[in-house]
Structure prediction request, 50 residues.
Amino acid sequence: MHGDWHTTIAPDGVISGAKASVWKEPYHHGRAMMSSRHLLRDMLIDAGAT
Prediction:
């Protein structure tokens, strides 16, 4: 399975835990969208668009 981060990686490299949760997915995707909005706004401002 690809995507998101694992909950736990032990010192010996064994991966365990869910990669997503009801809380984690919406939070991180929402934050990514807000960051993208700010980045695009700043790019438009730098380009002289209104």
